[in-house]
Write a structure and sequence with these properties.
InterPro entries: AGP_Transferase, Aminoglycoside_PTrfase, Kinase-like_dom_sf. The chain is an alpha+beta fold and about 300 residues long. The chain has helices at about 10-20, 55-75, 115-135, 155-170, 175-190, 240-250, 255-275, 280-300; strands at about 30-35, 40-45, 50-55, 85-90, 100, 105-110, 200, 210, 215-220, 225-230. Strands 1-2-3-5-4 form a five-stranded antiparallel beta sheet, sandwiched between helices. It has a three-stranded antiparallel beta sheet with strand order 6-8-9, covered by helices on one side. A two-stranded antiparallel sheet has the order 7-10.
Length: about 300
């Protein structure tokens, strides 16, 4: 499944060649597909390792960022995060950097894996508070740590307005895009965020949160790791049931303005996802549509 114009093709044979050339001691380990997202394709390697291969040159930069910062962030967080064990170099079989991590056992957060959504929301809030409290260790909002989701809404207005127009044409019969646009404008009407920039995961949606024994166990995929304002960090709570969202709100104790900006980010990321992946990634588009409906339902209930 190709998602991007500059995507570099990869399959199990290519990954096998990469691993065998770089780490011969792993060459005979079983290699099994372990999923694919918008940024990377994953393969489980043996029982203890995971190979992540970027889809595009831009996504490869995110892996390098993880290799640099996760070994420093991991010891400062109580939940488990990916542990890089090998930084793969470009080669004849694949022209981009790639990465190997310790395998983390767990299931994606969802109705079949989470036992108590209120507890899950509180646990996620705890992870967020803890990450945001970690010292920056010399990092700043610059270079690959300056991602748009850590800034203000206004620089994204023209882009998101185009995406809203796309959604009006593609899913307007199923979603109230006019109401979504009003919620986006509500966020824009507020002052830009202020305060001290913090560490941000950037994409704490359920597919990036692993559960064991019904409780939050690990946070994965730090490709969106950045330094910035936390408004967009809260956006993924609209991917969760209202019970989890309410528990998160109570635990994080953010102000109303931040919540309104977070809601604007939630719908912005979703409408851009529908606009970009509308003809290539139906499962992801379904996630985006579900988030937008949750945003609308939540706003109507407030």
């Amino acid at each position: 499944m190709t998602l991007h114009e500059d995507e570099v093709a990869v399959d199990a044979a290519v990954v096998r060649e990469l691993v065998g050339a770089a780490r011969p001691e792993w060459g005979e380990l079983e290699l099994v597909p372990a999923g694919a997202g918008t940024d990377n394709t994953m393969y489980r390697l043996g029982d203890e390792l995971l190979v992540r291969v970027p889809r595009t040159p831009e996504k490869a930069l995110a892996l390098r960022k993880e290799q640099e910062w996760l070994p420093r962030l991991g010891p400062r967080l109580r939940c488990r995060v990916p542990e890089p064990v090998h930084a793969g170099a470009p080669g004849p079989a694949f022209p981009l950097p790639w990465s190997v991590y310790r395998w983390i056992e767990g299931d994606e957060a969802g109705p079949g894996t989470v036992q108590d959504w209120a507890a899950f929301g509180a646990d996620l809030a705890s992870v967020v508070r803890e990450l945001h409290a970690v010292e920056l260790m010399g990092a700043s909002r610059a270079g690959d740590l300056s991602w748009y989701r850590g800034g203000g809404l206004h620089p994204c207005d023209a882009w998101i307005s185009r995406c809203l127009a796309d959604c009006r044409a593609s899913v307007g019969a199923e979603l109230d895009v006019d109401a979504l646009e009003r919620l986006w404008r509500d966020g824009l009407a507020l002052p830009e965020p202020a305060g001290t920039p913090v560490w941000l995961h950037g994409d704490l949606k359920p597919t990036n949160v692993l559960v064991r024994d019904g409780r939050l166990h690990a946070v994965i995929d730090f490709g969106g790791l950045s330094v910035g304002f936390p408004d967009a960090e809260h956006a993924t709570v609209w991917d969760l049931p209202a019970t989890a969202r309410d528990a998160y709100w109570d635990a994080v104790r953010i102000d109303e303005a931040t919540w309104v900006r977070a809601r604007a980010w939630a719908l912005a990321v979703a409408v851009s996802g529908i606009s970009y992946y509308g003809g290539t990634f139906p499962a992801f588009v379904a996630e985006c549509r579900a988030r937008l409906q949750a945003v609308l339902d939540d706003a109507a209930a407030r």
